[in-house]
């Protein structure tokens, strides 16, 4: 289940674009994170604030290891996005084309109604402000009229010239608010961000080869089977940053690096990784898949620097 009222039935599509594995559907993103502990990384800009890279949005990019794991567990399948779009839109005719255009018009009408509601609220706010200013002016005029009926000292105006005029008006003019125009019924032109409504993503003829994964894939699968969450470890110079739960709720516990079983590991890498992990209050975890065919053959080791 992706949300309170959205169910995910069957394998979900993962778009392969320029060698990267992307997910565009927020329901699928939530489903993968909640059910299968696959987080990915948000790489899209936010339309309201596009000139920053602190807060990002859809799509979510998956590691090749994450995409491969989902394919092997039959949770997802890979779609060659470019070829699928070319094939679909070149043959889009008849009812399919009409449905696609109708969906665009429907989105355009929703956008126009939303814009008209915002405009109407601005007009109502301006009219209320104008009424308040008019009431203030009437109160001021009544006060001046009362004071003009009282006797005043004529000598106080002896030094003023009758032809003398002020450069500024006594009361500022009230702002005018134009009357609301009759809204047009034409829908806004909409550029769709996704084409899931028009692309029939059937799994049969678009199955792609499994993603190519690095040597650390065995360690990734081992930690994932133990219900750990993992994100890319570039920030700490490792393969994966390992969390005991959702990264939104927990700090990471390990900096994981995968190796081949017979691979020689430079001692300086072990020392540097151990010092770095201990310095940021994490364990430096290395591991690899050992020889053998019976069960899980991955052996992890955790290193901590005792002098810090």
How would you characterize this protein structure?
By secondary structure, the protein is α+β, with helices and mostly antiparallel strands. It has 3 domains: about 1-90 and about 205-215, 3-Layer(aba) Sandwich (MutS, DNA mismatch repair protein, domain I), CATH 3.40.1170; about 95-150 and about 170-195; about 215-308, Trna Endonuclease, Chain: A, domain 1 (3-Layer(aba) Sandwich). It contains 6 helices and 10 strands; from the N terminus they run E-E-H-E-E-H-E-H-H-H-E-E-E-H-E-E. The protein has helices spanning about 25-35, 65-70, 80-90, 95-150, 215-225, 265-280; strands at about 10-15, 20-25, 40-45, 55-60, 75-80, 230, 240-245, 255-260, 285-290, 300-305. The strands form 2 sheets. Strands 3-4-2-1-5 form a 5-stranded mixed β-sheet. The chain has a 5-stranded mixed β-sheet with strand order 6-7-8-9-10. The two termini are about 45 Å apart. Residues about 1-5 have low confidence and may be disordered.
């Amino acid at each position: 289940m992706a949300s309170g009222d959205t169910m995910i039935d069957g394998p979900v599509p993962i778009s392969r674009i320029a060698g990267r594995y992307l997910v565009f559907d927020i329901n699928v993103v939530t489903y993968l994170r909640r059910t299968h502990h696959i987080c990915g990384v948000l790489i899209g800009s936010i339309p309201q604030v596009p000139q920053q890279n602190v807060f990002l949005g859809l799509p979510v990019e998956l590691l090749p290891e994450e995409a491969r794991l989902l394919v092997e567990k039959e949770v997802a399948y890979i779609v060659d996005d470019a070829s699928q779009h070319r094939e679909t839109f070149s043959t889009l005719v008849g009812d399919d084309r009409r449905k696609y255009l109708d969906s665009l018009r429907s989105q355009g009408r929703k956008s126009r109604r939303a814009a008209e509601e915002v405009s109407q609220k601005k007009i109502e706010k301006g009219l209320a402000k104008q009424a308040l200013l008019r009431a203030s002016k009437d109160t001021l005029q009544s006060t001046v009229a009362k004071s003009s009926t009282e006797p005043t000292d004529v000598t106080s105006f002896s030094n003023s010239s009758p032809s003398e005029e002020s450069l500024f008006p006594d009361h500022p003019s009230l702002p005018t608010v134009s009357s609301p125009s009759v809204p047009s019924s034409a829908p806004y032109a909409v550029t769709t961000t996704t084409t899931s409504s028009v692309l029939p993503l059937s799994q049969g003829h678009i199955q792609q080869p499994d993603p190519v994964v690095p040597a650390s894939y065995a360690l990734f699968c081992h930690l994932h089977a133990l219900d750990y969450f993992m994100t890319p470890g570039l920030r700490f110079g490792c393969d994966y940053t390992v969390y005991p739960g959702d990264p939104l709720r927990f700090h990471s516990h390990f900096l994981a690096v995968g190796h081949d079983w017979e691979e020689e590991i430079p001692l300086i890498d072990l020392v540097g990784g151990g010092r770095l992990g201990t310095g940021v209050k994490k364990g430096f975890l290395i591991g690899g898949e050992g020889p053998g065919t019976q069960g899980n053959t991955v052996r992890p080791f955790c290193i901590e620097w005792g002098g810090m």
